[in-house]
Structure formats: structure tokens, C-alpha cells
Design brief:
- The longest helix is centred in the C-terminal third of the chain and has 22 residues, at 199-220.
- The protein has helices at residues 16-28, 43-51, 60-65, 79-86, 105-112, 143-154, 167-175, 177-194, 199-220, 224-231, 237-247, 250-268, and strands at residues 9-12, 36-39, 55-56, 69-72, 95-98, 116-121, 131-137, 157-161.
- The chain is 53% helix and 13% strand.
- The two termini are 38 Å apart.
- It contains 12 helices and 8 strands.
- It has 270 residues and is α/β, with parallel strands linked by helices.
- Pathway: Amino-acid biosynthesis; L-proline biosynthesis; L-proline from L-glutamate 5-semialdehyde: step 1/1.
Length: 270
């Protein structure tokens, strides 16, 4: 379902994640590209947005003045500078959605002044309508704001409401998780090539295997351990492969990756 026709979405920063969100919202029919505006210091990224039919503004201030909802999509290290510069242009009528990892609601609210603030941690698969995201509301944000953000990001996949203290864990798991999964798909495909499969077939099989396995977890509501047991027959090929993964500390490596990314997010929060 589309948001109100008059609603204008402004992107402060036109990087890859902003592009993914813009494309996803447009593809889902929730917000059209002609309802969006953007600004970025990188002219190449501005051209990408223009090619989508999104109007480019000459400054972040111009984006704020022409938007109802602002998506702050800049690197965490420059959020304070950008938000502080925007502050005179923001009012209580603005909803500011920050997707910057580790930047706290308290700081966002202080830098953004009267604007209502929400933090969202999406991930890159919002580009294909399959994001895994979470949101936390600032002190001045309303239930209507939460409903709007849920509507926006539900159109891009799945979103959960969590306490802000859990957002760094979300960053470590689903925010960074696609990187781990892409690495796993590449490795599975390499294994197929090593076993004699042509690379295009190996890559297709690997990616579809990950996709299908994820769908089974989500659609059957079975624990992944139970699904693993169902595919690993006694003395069979799967249990032999699982044995090798266990010997190499596969599960511990993934857990450590999530914890390392979470810790990095916590550093941004300080």
C-alpha cells in the first residue's frame, strides 16, 4: 500500500544503501521515485539517482525543506556534522530516519533539534525486497511514525521493533550478515567447481540452495536444527559434510563474526 500521495521522501546521502531503499520503495509501489529527492557530494551517485527519476537538490538543506520524511544515509563518522548543519531547517513536522550504524537516538535528537527521530538498521537485500531490518523510536517519535516506518520497510522485507540497546546486535547480525552469506555462497560455488561443476551452474546452485533453505526456515517455522536433522540421513553425504564444518569451527566462526561486527557498532555509539 502506497503512503500518502503528497508525502515527500528526502535522502541525505545517495550511497548504495540509499539507492537500495529508493529502488525497493518504488518497485513495491509504496513511494514513487517522483515523490523522492536527494543530495550527495558525490556527483556520480547523484547521477545514479537522477537516472531513477529522483530529483537532485543542491544541498542537504534544500532536501530538508522539500521533504516530510528524511532518510539520513551518510557514514556514521559524519552524522554529527551533517545533522547539525541540517538543524536550522528541521522542525517538529519532520521525521528523520537514520540508518547510520551505532549513532544513538540521544545524539541524533540533540543534533537534529525539533525533528522526530527514528533509528533503522536495514541491510542491502532491501534492493530485492528481502531486507531484514529493525527500528527504535526516539523520545519524540509517535506511534504514527512507527507505523509509517514499518509500512516503508515492510515493503522492502521484514522489520522488527526493538529496544535501542539491541540495535548494535542487529547491526552485527542482519546488517553485516549479507557479507557473511555472500562469502558462504562464493565458497559453496568454489567447492562445486572443485568437484567438477561449471562455475555458472555451481554459483546458481549455491545461491538457490541458500535461498531455498532460508525460505524453509521462515515458512515452516521449524528450528534450523530440526531441518538440518531432516536432511542429514545416517551415514549419508550431508552428515559427512557437516562433520567437516564442525571440525573447522564453522558455527563458532559465524558467531564470532556477529560479535565482532556488534562490537564495532558499539564503538560508533561512544
Amino acid at each position: 500500500m502506497a503512503v500518502a500521495a503528497g508525502t515527500r521522501i528526502g535522502f541525505i546521502g545517495a550511497g548504495q544503501m540509499a539507492e537500495a531503499i529508493a529502488k525497493g520503495l518504488n518497485s513495491a509501489g509504496v513511494v514513487r521515485c517522483d515523490q523522492m529527492i536527494a543530495a550527495d557530494v558525490n556527483l556520480g551517485r547523484c547521477q545514479v539517482f537522477q537516472n531513477l527519476g529522483i530529483a537532485i537538490c543542491g544541498s542537504n538543506t534544500e532536501v530538508a525543506e522539500g521533504s516530510d520524511v528524511l532518510i539520513l544515509a551518510v557514514k556514521p563518522q559524519i552524522v554529527e556534522k551533517v545533522a547539525t548543519e541540517l538543524k536550522p531547517s528541521l522542525s517538529k513536522n519532520h521525521l528523520l530516519i537514520s540508518i547510520a550504524a551505532g549513532v544513538t537516538l540521544v545524539n541524533l535528537q540533540r543534533w537534529a533539534g525539533e525533528a522526530r527521530v527514528v533509528r533503522v538498521m536495514p541491510n542491502l537485500p532491501c534492493l530485492v525486497g528481502a531486507t531484514a531490518a529493525a527500528l527504535s523510536l526516539g523520545s519524540s517519535a509517535t506511534q504514527a511514525d512507527a507505523d509509517l516506518v514499518i509500512k516503508l520497510f515492510d515493503a522492502l522485507g521484514k522489520i522488527h521493533v526493538v529496544d535501542e540497546k539491541l540495535l548494535n546486535a542487529v547491526t552485527g547480525l542482519s546488517g553485516s550478515g549479507p557479507g557473511y552469506v555472500f562469502l558462504a555462497i562464493e565458497a559453496l560455488a568454489d567447492g562445486g567447481v572443485a568437484a567438477g561443476l561449471p562455475r555458472p551452474i555451481a554459483l546458481s546452485l549455491a545461491a538457490q540452495t541458500v535461498l531455498g533453505s532460508a525460505k524453509m526456515v521462515l515458512e515452516t517455522n521449524k528450528h534450523p536444527g530440526q531441518l538440518k536433522d531432516e536432511v542429514a540421513s545416517p551415514g549419508g553425504t550431508t552428515i559427512a559434510g557437516i562433520h567437516e564444518l564442525e571440525k573447522m569451527g564453522f558455527r563458532a566462526a559465524l558467531m564470532n563474526a556477529v560479535l565482532a561486527a556488534t562490537e564495532r557498532g558499539e564503538k560508533f555509539s561512544k
